[in-house]
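Minutes, project check-in
Item: structure for the 358-residue chain
Input as provided by the requester:
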Amino acid sequence: MFASLFARISPFHGPLTPAVCEPPALTDVQPIQNAISSSSEAAPIYSCEFGSAKYFALCGVGGLLSCGLTHTAVVPLDLVKCRLQVDSKKYKNVMYGFKLSVREEGVRSLAKGWAPTFIGYSLQGMFKFGLYEVFKVGYSNVLDEETAYVYRTFVYLAASASAEVFADIALSPFEAVKVRIQTMPGFANTLREAWPKMVQNEGYGTFYKGLVPLWGRQIPYTMIKFACFERTLEMFYKYVVPKPRDQCSKGEQLVVTFAAGCVAGVLCAIVSHPADTVVSKLNQDKSATVGSIVSKLGWAGVWKGLGTRIVMIGTLTALQWFIFDGVKVILRTPRPPPAEMPESMKKRLEAEISVKDN
């Protein structure tokens, strides 16, 4: 449906546009070999065109790897977090939760739920990152260049929210299985065991019972994750990094990406935590409702496990952006620079300042 929108790439310089670099012109004082070297660095050969179907597909691959790998890596921490959320009296705190889980079920129990985590979050990451790029380009192209620049934060928020709606539909069944395995000892130990048992006992509807609360957790989380990252990255290159982005090596750019991801991750964890607690409770108790859970837990109860979630999600988000950007480098996918004010807007503002001074 965005075919007509993608025909025009947003002209303002930023994450919604391709980086277009022209090779330097040769002069008498510029050795030919230097010109060739400079040209190869300034105008890398990309594997696809920005805004093409292949570009969006490769962004989906980056998202699949970034979310699938990172969420699977922290399954032990996620297991303890979920158990702390659903039974805080028994597990008390993170360290005690680890000790008790190992004591009751052994070290191998800390890996419970790794399969639904890997599959579910890989699918979610593919839709999240891939569709974010689709919606971001689509929404920005509806606007003129100056409006797209001025309201770019709203473009990021709208694009990420739209993408997350579809990403959570893919995630929901696997999230339900994961929480059931992790928080109900004896129910099942593997995805192959839990899935048919849940279908037989409760029907396929049980996989989407937590979808609305999942949206409540993930949509605000993703909106902060993308919008905060984009704006933080922009500010880092403007105020913190001592040289322009185009003069930074790819390694230096990835470090900046990781740092911006850390900032976004902490904010994401705080915003989405209450809904995360509700989702864990819903998937544990098939008779519970959102209202009954909130009433039972109270305001303080829905914030249980926040410290663990900040550590987990903060690290996760930073690594996800690092992996996503790294995959784009490996696959030679276009990596446009942060947003810059359009030339037309710069000239207009300069003219207005000049008139005021006179």
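Outcome recorded: The chain has a mean pLDDT of 83.
No further action items on this chain.
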